[in-house]
């Protein structure tokens, strides 16, 4: 049995930030930012990390992210991945 409690992201807070959302309100991350290049300007020479939003060092994981699997186990895994990406990001910040 699978129970879906909600399918809409709670991302209204992002409207006042440079974080890019798609037409459904999901946060756009990683390589998906290339598709949204008309609305997102990536300021760094490197490509965004997989879970990174249009704001370098700001990561999104789980159901709020566009193209996520929308399952608890996947969200937990993405959260663990985000920690690794944060470490990578912090190691490059001067």
Can you put this structure into words, describing what you see?
It comes from Rhodococcus sovatensis. InterPro entries: FAD/NAD-bd_sf. This is Thioredoxin reductase (NADPH). The chain is mainly alpha-helical and 94 residues long. The protein has a single domain (12-92), classed as FAD/NAD(P)-binding domain. The chain contains 2 helices and no strands. The longest helix is centred in the C-terminal third of the chain and has 21 residues, at 72-92. It is globular and about 40 Å long. The N and C termini lie far apart (49 Å).
Q: Give the C-alpha Rg.
A: 13 Å
What's the number of helices?
2
What's the story with the biggest beta sheet? none
> In angstroms, what separates the terminal alpha carbons?
49 Å
What's the CATH C level? Alpha Beta
Q: Helix amount, in percent? A: 25-40%
Principal-axes geometry comes out as globular
H and E string: HH
CATH superfamily: FAD/NAD(P)-binding domain
Give me the CATH architecture, please. 3-Layer(bba) Sandwich
* CATH topology group: FAD/NAD(P)-binding domain
How many domains? The number is: 1
Quickly give the structural class.
mainly alpha
The amount of beta strand, in percent, is under 5%
Mean pLDDT: 86
Give the total of beta strands. 0
Low-confidence stretches: none
Notable characteristics:
94 residues, mainly alpha, 2 helices, Thioredoxin reductase (NADPH), FAD/NAD-bd_sf
């Amino acid at each position: 049995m699978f129970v879906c409690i909600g399918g809409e992201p709670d991302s209204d807070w992002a409207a006042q930030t440079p974080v890019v959302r798609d037409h459904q309100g999901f946060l756009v991350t990683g390589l998906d930012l290339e598709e949204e290049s008309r609305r997102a300007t990536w300021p760094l020479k490197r490509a965004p990390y997989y879970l990174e939003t249009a704001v370098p060092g700001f990561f999104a994981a789980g159901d709020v992210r566009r193209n996520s699997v929308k399952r608890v186990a996947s969200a937990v895994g993405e959260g663990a991945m985000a920690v690794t990406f944060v470490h990578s990001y912090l190691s490059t910040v001067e």
